[in-house]
Amino acid sequence: MSVNLRESWWIGDVEVPTRVVLAPMAGVSVQAFRRQGRRFGAGLVCSEMVSCAGIEHRNERTLGYLRVSSDEHPLAIQIFGSDPHAMAEAARMVEAAGADVVDMNFGCPVRKVTKTGAGACLVEDVALACAITEAVASAVSVPVTVKMRRGVENGSRACLELGPRLVEAGAAALTLHPRSAKQMYTGWADHSLTAELVSLVDVPVIASGDVTSRAKALGVLEATGAAAVMVGRGAQGNPWALAEIVGDAEAAQPSREEVAAELIHFVRETVRELGEHRANGFLKKFYGWYLGHGRFPKPFKQELVQLKTTDEVVTRLLAAAPGAAEILERLEADVPESEFVLEGMPISIYGGG
Ligand SMILES: Cc1cc2nc3c(=O)[nH]c(=O)nc-3n(C[C@H](O)[C@H](O)[C@H](O)COP(=O)(O)O)c2cc1C
What we know:
Elements: E1 9-11, E2 14-16, E3 20-22, H1 31-39, E4 45-46, E5 50-51, H2 52-56, H3 60-64, E6 75-80, H4 84-97, E7 101-106, H5 111-114, H6 126-139, E8 144-151, H7 158-169, E9 173-180, H8 191-200, E10 205-208, H9 214-224, E11 228-231, H10 239-246, H11 256-291, H12 298-306, H13 310-320, H14 324-334
Parallel strand pairs: 3-11, 4-6, 5-6, 6-7, 7-8, 8-9, 9-10, 10-11
Antiparallel strand pairs: 1-2
The structure holds flavin mononucleotide.
Flavin mononucleotide is lined by residues 23-28, 48-49, 78, 105, 107, 147, 177, 208-211, 231-234, 350-353.
């Protein structure tokens, strides 16, 4: 069987143009990251997890997550919480904000979240998980999806019991990251569970975990029958991985100039979105991600991290790769500026699923 990654598929009535989904990642999935993901071939992008309590209390920072740019669609906004009523309210606001899909986080392994009954522990609480899904699905008219882990304990198969029940409760698609919450990000995602889940439900399943290349994407899709793969860490500072996965072999090896231009564009977009102060801290991890892969010498990354302003970072990048200026000019002419300027948007807790 051969899978075409450029084929479109559907979540309810939302058409997703490719079989690659950009993963929700707390502290990473800002609007600049999502827009870039769409540009490089992701058929669907997702916000990081947004607290339904924060939405309920109209927390200004939380509401910052609900800003959607017109070139992100289709876009899922992910919410987390454990109270069906509050989740339904949050879903209404997410729909009003312009999300095409409301995704729910049943996968976050972080204690701060699980101790409130949200995130990964919902995989083991079938009654509450279904009550939340029913409440959310009946509150909105856009499709509602769930992203979950395999269960809490190592070796758990709880996701296989829960999956079909979530579909009965109204889930239009399921994403499985088949690691346990205990595992966090260690070991491997066991996609034999993804294959089992696919055989149990009649909605699309998205396979998340350890997909970093076209070969891995095809392997997972062929072995599981999933509708799409989700790419997370593999796309951090490496949008070219998305292009390679959807089938652009040349894109896998960008030149230094292309890398510098793309990073500068990302820096500028992020500063527009978060303001200089927040963006400056937020961006530091991205320098290593972009400049690694043997693209620039290691000490150069250290140098960038120590610079005081993002303007200095841009100047230094242009000095290291002068040819980037021309590429950047083309890039900025092609990609319209985001409509939103967001000051003070939060970087939430790390490691949400
Ligand atoms: C830094 C980081 C933040 C994450 N935040 C979220 C999140 O907010 N919501 C979620 O459902 N999953 C979150 N995840 C899990 C990813 O979406 C994905 O399922 C996981 O990283 C496995 O895929 P990968 O091997 O492609 O990275 C996060 C992962 C990382 C590394």
